[in-house]
């Protein structure tokens, strides 16, 4: 047990322990951004900026915001735990940072906050391969959109129905719903003929994060008093799509307008079969094989800031759909939840206090019953050791600790105390005229029987509730296995020592 405790502490805190580390952790780097171009990576720890030490997120924000009070280009010398990067830029870095975790435990969405969706195909039962294909496309869409700390996993229920479980830390339900509830089928048509569709087959590249190929064109106020902002970005077509454009346009007539000469038909853009924009086609493109076109759109709002924000979001969403293509099926959100990180932090504090108070209460009851402080301390220390080993295993296997997992840990500690009391009762209160070794064997026959019964009872929970109770089942099985094979024998050895004394 001592050996497992040492290994668990190493698994939890690392070597050297994480709570000694200084700086801030890079949790995400926007793809194709300046920071990404110069080599900053997710998972690195920023130690200094321009030789100023960074010890907290507040310090990082203060230094960065102080540098970019104007639009002039700045030199940033960033020292990380594995790199030294010099960046020239006129805007804040497109990265997110957080405090360095004090442990290597990975907390679930219930504790860090975010959104969770249980998704399936509408009017279709998915096979295992179809579900894996869907997960691949959705994962790519979420990654391209710039959402970090996302988990997409297959789950199923007791009826055999397959679902996709999506968890995104820090995202709102609206962000999640907008990205996955629509199939994202993009088509560009001239008349009734399709020129190109979203995805790699027809689109080789989409301009983004580059002022030359994408950006906000202008903002203003319309006649109704609402603010608007227009965006435009370049789309680079494959050779086949460019040839289709030339073939369709070669027989179109040219119309003269006050704005110039344009073809008689427009390029109509459809998203999920709804017309989102119509673009005039210059007469110079008639019958011409062109691999670059420009897509435009807008965002509106009650203020110019809101309109600008909505325009950027609409542009990003459209770019993402063009890059990744449409989802293979129209999706249905079966369950959509949002979790507050504040609630998660409060819950952890309450659980820790309640757990410790419960352990001390049990230790007092044991002392009253057996009239021996050694038994009470042994029970208390064994339970704390069991908890430490469970958390060490969770850190080692990178298991997400969510609310069901914590409930599993509490259940494990409860059954552990029960088992230890069985060992105590059989060892000290049994009236059978047998040796101490045989008494402990009797106790362990009861404990082993209860262990296998619990494991069999927990197996259905691995798929019950479409996998949402999986954390409870796995954590409980890990916990009771550790108890039966590590901490219960250690407690029995302590009792043997005490009885010999």
Characterise this structure.
This protein is of the alpha+beta class and about 500 residues long. It folds into four domains: about 20-100, PDZ domain (Pdz3 Domain, Roll); about 115-180, Alpha-Beta Plaits (2-Layer Sandwich), CATH 3.30.70; about 195-305, no CATH class; about 340-500, Multidrug efflux transporter AcrB transmembrane fold, CATH 1.20.1640. Helices cover about 45% and strands about 25% of the residues. It has 13 helices and 22 strands. The protein has helices spanning about 1-15, 35, 55-65, 110, 130-145, 175-180, 240-250, 305-325, 340-370, 375-395, 405-430, 435-460, 470-500, and strands spanning about 25-30, 45-50, 50-55, 75-80, 85-90, 95-100, 105, 115-120, 150-155, 160-170, 185-190, 195, 205, 215-220, 225-235, 255, 260-265, 265-270, 275-280, 290-300, 330-340, 400. β16 (about 255) and β17 form a beta hairpin. The radius of gyration is 31 Å and the shape is elongated. The model has no long low-confidence stretch (mean pLDDT about 80).
From the structure above, extract its key features.
six-stranded antiparallel beta sheet, 44% helix, 4 domains, Alpha-Beta Plaits, elongated
Mean pLDDT: 81
Portion of residues within helices:
40-55%
The class by helix and strand makeup works out as alpha+beta
What's the overall geometry? elongated
Gap between N and C termini: 22 Å
Low-confidence stretches: none
β-strand number = 22
Q: CATH topology of the largest domain, which one?
A: Multidrug efflux transporter AcrB transmembrane fold
Proportion of residues in extended strands: 25-35%
* Rounded Rg: 31 Å
The CATH architecture of the largest domain: Up-down Bundle
Q: What is the CATH first-level class name of the largest domain?
A: Mainly Alpha
């Amino acid at each position: 047990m001592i050996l497992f405790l040492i290994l668990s502490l190493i698994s939890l805190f690392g070597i050297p322990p994480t709570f000694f580390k200084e700086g801030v952790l890079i949790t995400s780097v926007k793809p194709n951004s300046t920071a990404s171009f110069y080599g900053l990576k997710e998972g690195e720890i920023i130690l200094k900026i321009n030789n100023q030490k960074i010890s907290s997120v507040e310090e990082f924000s203060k230094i960065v915001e102080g540098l970019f009070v104007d639009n002039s280009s700045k030199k940033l010398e960033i020292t990380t735990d594995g790199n030294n990067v010099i960046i020239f830029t006129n805007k804040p870095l497109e990265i997110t940072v957080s405090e360095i975790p004090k442990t290597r435990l990975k907390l679930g969405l219930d504790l860090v906050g975010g959104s969770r969706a249980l998704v399936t195909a509408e009017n279709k039962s998915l096979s295992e391969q179809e579900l894996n294909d869907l997960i691949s496309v959705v994962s790519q869409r979420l990654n391209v959109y710039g959402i970090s700390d996302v988990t997409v996993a297959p789950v199923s229920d007791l009826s055999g129905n397959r679902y996709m479980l999506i968890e995104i830390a820090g995202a709102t339900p609206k962000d999640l719903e907008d990205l996955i509830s629509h199939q994202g089928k993009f088509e560009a048509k001239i008349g009734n003929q399709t020129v190109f569709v979203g995805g790699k087959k027809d689109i080789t590249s989409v301009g983004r994060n580059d002022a030359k190929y994408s950006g906000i064109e202008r903002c203003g106020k319309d006649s109704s008093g609402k603010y608007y902002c227009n965006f435009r970005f370049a789309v680079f077509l494959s050779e086949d799509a460019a040839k289709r454009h030339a073939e369709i346009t070669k027989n179109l007539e040219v119309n003269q307008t006050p704005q110039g000469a344009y073809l008689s038909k427009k390029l109509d853009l459809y998203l999920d079969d709804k017309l989102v924009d119509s673009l005039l086609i210059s007469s110079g493109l008639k019958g011409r094989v062109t691999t670059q076109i420009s897509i435009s759109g807008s965002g509106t709002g009650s203020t110019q800031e809101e309109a600008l924000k909505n325009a950027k979001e609409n542009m990003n969403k459209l770019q993402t759909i063009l890059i990744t293509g449409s989802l293979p099926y129209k999706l249905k959100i079966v369950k959509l939840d949002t979790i507050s990180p504040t609630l998660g932090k409060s819950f952890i504090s309450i659980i820790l206090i309640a757990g410790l108070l419960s352990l001390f209460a049990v230790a007092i009851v044991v002392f009253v019953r057996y009239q021996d402080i050694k038994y009470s301390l042994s029970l208390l220390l064994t339970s704390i050791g069991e908890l430490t080993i469970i958390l060490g295993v969770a850190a080692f296997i990178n298991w997400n600790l969510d609310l069901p997992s914590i409930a599993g840990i509490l259940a494990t500690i409860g059954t552990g105390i029960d088992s230890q009391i069985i060992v105590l009762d059989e060892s000290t209160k049994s009236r059978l005229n047998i040796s101490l070794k045989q008494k402990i064997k009797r106790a362990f026959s009861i404990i082993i029987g209860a262990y296998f019964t619990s494991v069999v009872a927990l197996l259905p929970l691995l798929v019950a509730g479409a996998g949402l109770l999986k954390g409870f089942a796995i954590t409980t099985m890990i916990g009771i296995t550790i108890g039966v094979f590590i901490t219960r024998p250690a407690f029995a050895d302590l009792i043997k020592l005490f009885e010999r004394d």
